[in-house]
Amino acid sequence: MIHRLRSLRLVIFGGLLFGTVAARLDGCGEQKLQDLSGREMFLRYCSPCHGEEAKGNGPVAMFMRPQPPDLTKLAAEGKFEEEHVAEVIDGRRMPQAHGTRQMPVWGAVFEEQLRSQERPHPPFEAYLRTITLVDYLRSIQEPNPGPN
User: Fold this and answer.
1) What is the chain's percent helix, strand, coil content, to nearest 5?
2) Nearest to 45 by CA among 123, 107, 120
């Protein structure tokens, strides 16, 4: 019974995630992906789980265990680990809390999108998209409140 409930939850979560991301990607043809700002990329790829303000409260977050993290707190210890964040986004590193990887491997998604565009592109273009997201995440870090 518990296994069935987990399976049903995964099916519902997958459908919601796919539908939400697909709806956000629907307008991709109107604007070239390489021209998107970090915020625009975040809203398209990350906000279904992390929320528009990156607080971990996106529309599909309620179906996720563990919950998506608050991405405005990545520098809570005073340092923003750019390479670590890039590795989590592009799939080279799995987030510790996930246990299993619920987060899409965006590096592979970006590579596939580039291949489907039927135009030559530099081999590092997918990584540049990851870096654009990393730069945006750095820009939204909340200041460390420090000791009270």
Assistant:
1) 60, 0, 40
2) 107
Q: CB within 8 A of 47, min separation 6: which ones?
A: 24, 54, 58
Tokens read off for 129: 């998209």
Instruction: Dump pLDDT digits (tens) for 109-142.
Output: 887 877 777 666 666 778 888 999 999 999 999 8
Identity of the residue numbered 143:
P
Q: What is the pTM (predicted TM-score) of this model?
A: 0.68
Residue 25 CB-density burial (10 A; 0-12 exposed, 13-18 middle, 19+ buried): middle
Q: Which amino acid is at 144?
A: N
- C-alpha to C-alpha distances, 94 to 12, 18, 86, 113, 137, nearest whole angstrom: 23, 20, 11, 22, 18
Judge whether 81 and 71 are in contact, CB under 8 Å: no
Q: Is 58 exposed, middle or buried (0-12, 13-18, 19+ CB in 10 A)?
A: buried
pLDDT per residue as tens digits for the range 54-106: 999 999 998 888 889 999 999 987 899 999 999 999 888 776 544 555 677 77
